[in-house]
Amino acid sequence: MRFTEDLVRRLCAAILARWKAKGLIRPKTTEEALLSRMTAEIHKDIQREAELDRDAEALLEKHLGKIEASQANSRVLFQKIKERLAKERDVVL
């Protein structure tokens, strides 16, 4: 799924509103500054996951001959590789 800037911002605004309503946070800065920081962090996470996808695909391609010979499911292997890379890089999926 492609996350547009508007969608991420609306999600962050909804999360921030809920946190404030429940008294989980007491902002010391403007709501705009908080939203900007939240959206930036989410975009960084999206970029990290995209990088993991590229690296997992590269590893899968590298070992494609072995995979085809063993008749393993490439989507399952891709997910396992991605999870392993995420764990090694301390990325939460």
Structure description:
The chain is an all-alpha fold and 93 residues long. The model has no long low-confidence stretch (mean pLDDT 88). It has 4 helices and no strands. It has helices spanning 5-21, 31-62, 64-70, 74-88.
Low-confidence stretches: none
Order of helices and strands: HHHH
Number of strands: 0
Largest sheet: none
| Helix content percent band | over 70%
Backbone CA Rg = 19 Å
- Give the count of helical stretches: 4
Q: How much is the average pLDDT? A: 88
Backbone structural class? mainly alpha
> CA-to-CA gap between the ends?
14 Å
Portion in strands: under 5%
Q: Given the C-alpha coordinates, what overall shape results?
A: elongated
Task: List its traits.
93 residues; mainly alpha; elongated
Quick summary:
This protein is an all-alpha fold and about 90 residues long. The protein has helices spanning about 5-20, 30-60, 65-70, 75-90.
Topology:
Blueprint: H1 5-21, H2 31-62, H3 64-70, H4 74-88
Helix pairs in contact: 1-2, 2-4
